Each structure stands twice: as structure tokens, then as C-alpha cells.
Amino acid sequence: MPKSVAIDDIPTTVDVASNNAPPGSRSANVIAVVLLVLGVALVMPVAKLGVWMSSRDYYEHVPLMALFAFILGVYRYRQEPTTRQMVVSPRVLLWTLIASGFAVGTYVLPSRWMAAPATVATVMAALTLWGGREMTWRLRGPLVLLVACIPLPVLMDSWFVVEMQQLATWLASLWLDLMGILHLSTGVEIRTPENNFAVADACSGIHSMFAAIAVGVGYSVLRNYRVWRILALVVQMVFWVVIANAIRVFVVVYAQSRYGIDLSTGLRHDLLGMVTFATGVLMATSSDHFWRYLLPGTGISDDESPASPSEVNGSPIGFLDSAVSPRAAVIVAGVLVVFGLGGVAAFSKFSRLSLAQASMVELAQNSAIDFDTVDESFFPAEIAGWTRTNFIVNEKTEESIFGGMKSFIWQYSNGSRAVLLSVDGPYNDWHDLAMCYSGVGWQVSNRSPYPFDGNENFVAADLSLERPPLERAEVLFACLDPRGDCVAPPPHFGDAWIHLINRMRWAIGEKQSYGGGVIQVQLLDETPVKLSRGQIRDNHELFQMAVMHAFGGEKE
């Protein structure tokens, strides 16, 4: 009898061992290795993205927010460690595919922006593999913070800042009207009889918008808000920060115009900025408490646990958390290998780009002009019937919406007409003046590239601008690399049909390294009436001859 018991026990032990061994754990190990490779591949792009974001004052807080998300995630995990075995589910494979797609795009385009969603998707895949849906639920707060670290794509951050500045300027102008202050508001400028106030200088605190959004997300995460409540608080943050910055603009202009107190610079300006920022954040949290008072029973918090596995499996999306066959995991791994080979093939294209960005001084030292020696003789006294009548040098500040370090401006006259020629820079890449002029109230009615007559390799850009009620302008501009060769406009410029696709490829990707600074030559013809074809032709002729004189080998 003891012998038969032992015999009965042996198969049972063997069966249990065979069930726990391995096809599933091997496939989980394969996916874990894939995620590890993705993480290693994203290290350099994420470092590049961090350097770029640190150079933008409205993104300086992001590295700290990412660090806080990591610390909070570790803390919440240690409160309740998981003992769950790794399981490859459709949810894991979905996140892995998303992460791989963004990671390959990071290198193929190349695009440092894509490194951000690739990193988030990789983290989601790893957490789901390690602890399933329960793990991501428990760490939802740190994950929301991590998602908030992703910058806006396709230059939307610049567009967002400009739009918010214009809105704050418009609100401040309304309040100045109510207080009887004589002024003229255009774009992000407010002009009084005595002074001109550029909102980029008098109220650069609009960049605190992104910091305020980060504060709102962090506050919501610590209070375990639901996702919809987090979004509601972010909207409130945006609203109140815009109001606070409009108050800041109003106070600066009103104090100067009524009492002669200058609040646009110095310690007073900084203190005013801190007060308005704090006011906006406090008003947003106050309005959040107000809505919680009005709607106390609408499930503000996520303190409750997620649905149990049995409840999930019975739902329409329950299959996302069920284990997949080892064959499916191998097929997905094979697809990822193909993606990976494409990423490796494009790696050299990305790795040639420098991690550190050159400073403004370094760009100026390696550009097509010497910024210390340019004077009025840079362009001749007469060009194509136009006569030089004035010359000034504009030293730019970091807050200048037009960027660069210096602007050299020449005025040329031809009879009753007068235009401005300028050389600006340096820049890292081709510089889109449409964004700059939009920031000071101009509306771009038309934009198009055009090659110089007799030199199709030199491509400039033409902008038609309007600023209601009466102002119109034509802007011609071209960019040149350190050798004096043309830097052509990107492919999307002036083409409405392929605007989105090509702009995504050009704007969110890494820019080409020119070995120095890019300078820009510009012609501005501002007039209250629409230009005739003859006047437009004269502008083109003057602009082309000026550029060719300075950079085309026609200097004496």
C-alpha cells in the first residue's frame, strides 16, 4: 500500500511541474528582453529630448516632474509589492507594438519627440507584463505624471504660447479701456502715447502656463482624482493662469501710464510675476474645491479598487488581460525584430547629431557674417534704384519673439516708398518668420517659396500679411548656412495638401547640423494698401540683388 501511494503521487508531481514550466514563462521572458532592448535604445533620444526641453523655459520643470513620478511610483509599489507571475496578454503585446513603432520612428525620421511616447508605452508594457492591469491601476498616478511630461508635438508648444499671449493681451486691453487708458493693442503689443509694451517682455510669465499645468496634474495625482477630474483641473489651471497673466499685463501698463511706476523690469517685475502665478494656481484649486462642493457624489476619487479579474474576463474587453499562446508572442517578437533592424539601419543618421546644443555665442562665431563688424556698408548705398537712408542695430533679449541675438536693419527708399532690409540671427536652423509675425498680431494670408531668378538652387520665402483694420505687409526672407549657401524652406511650406505630414516629419524631428549658426535676410514692406504687381516685382528685385551682393560673390 505505501508503494501504490508513492506511485500515485509521482505523476501528480510531474503534471504540476509541467503545467508551471514553461511555454508561457519563456514567451514572457522574450517580451521582457524586447522591452529591455527598447529601453536601452531610447536612452540617447530621451537624453536629447531632455536637453532640448531644458533649453525652453516653459519646459524646465519637466525633468523634475519625471523624477517625482519615478519616486512616487517606487513608493506606491513598495506599499503593496506584487507577487503575480509575468503573463503575456494582448494588452502587453499592444503596448509593446506601440512602443516599438514610436521607437523606430525616433530613429527613422529622426524625431526626438517620439522618444517621449515611446518611453511611456514601454513603461506601460513593462508594468502590465509584470503585474497586469492591477499594477497599472495601482500606479495610475505616477503614470499620469509621466504622460504629462510629453511635450506638445509639431511646434504646437510655440503656437500655444503665442495664442495664450494674444488672449492675455486682448483681455488686458479690455480692462485698460474700462479704466480710460489711451492705448492701441496689436497682437502681443500694447502701445500708449508714452511707451510700447511687448507682452513677451512685460509678461513673459505666460510660459508659466506649462508649470501651472504640471502643478495641477501633481495636485490631482496626490488626491487620487479620476482622469476626467484631472483634465477638468488642467482646464481650470489654463483659464486662471491666462486671467492672472492678463492682470499682470494690465497692472504693468496701468501703473506706468497712470502713476509713472515701471513694473516691466527688475525685481518689481519678478515679484509681480510670482504673485500672479501663485494667484492663478490658488484660484484654480479654489474653483476645484467649489466644484467638489457642488458635485460631492460624482466619484471624484479613484480610491476604490479596480474590477476583479473575473469581472474583467466577463466584460467585452476581458480578452485584453487573458494569456496569449506562445506562438502569438513569438510572431509579435518577430515583427519587432524587423522593426528593430529598420531602427538599427537608421541609427547612424540619428547618432551623428550632437547631444549638446550650441550656445548663441558659438552659433554667431561660426556663421556667414561677423556679428561684431557688420555696419551700414554691408549693403551698398544704392541697389536697383533704391537708396539707403538709415541703419540701426537691434540687440535682442532672450524674450524676443523673433529670436536670435542681433538684427542689423537698413532702410531703403525709392520715391515715396520705403522698405526695411535686415540681417538677423543666429539660429539653429531655417527660421519661420510666419510664426514670429503671427505672434505680434499679423495674420498670414499667403505663404509660398520661390527660387531666385537665374539661380533655382537659392529658394526664398514670400509672406503676405494683414493686421486689421488697415495694415498690410509683404515679407521676403531667406536663410543661409555658415558657408553662405541657401537653407531652403521645409517641404510643407506653402503646400496645403501635404502640410501636416511633411510638417510632422520636419518640425518634430532633429534638425540638420550646419556646423554653426544660420542667418536670415529679410525685406519688410509695410503699407496700408495692397501692393501692385509692379511694386511686388520691385521688392523681389531689391531683395535678390541685396542677397546676391552680400553672399553671392558680387561684393567689390
TrEMBL record:
Transmembrane ranges?
30-52, 58-75, 87-108, 114-131, 143-161, 197-222, 228-255, 328-347
| Keywords attached to this entry | Cell membrane, Hydrolase, Membrane, Protease, Transmembrane, Transmembrane helix
MF terms per GO, please?
peptidase activity
| One cellular component term from this protein's GO annotations in UniProt | plasma membrane
Q: How does it sit in the membrane?
A: Multi-pass membrane protein
Gene Ontology biological process terms in this record: proteolysis
What the entry lists under Pfam families is as follows:
Exosortase_EpsH (PF09721)
Superkingdom of the source? Bacteria
Subcellular location per UniProt equals: Cell membrane
This protein's name: Transmembrane exosortase
Species of origin? Novipirellula herctigrandis
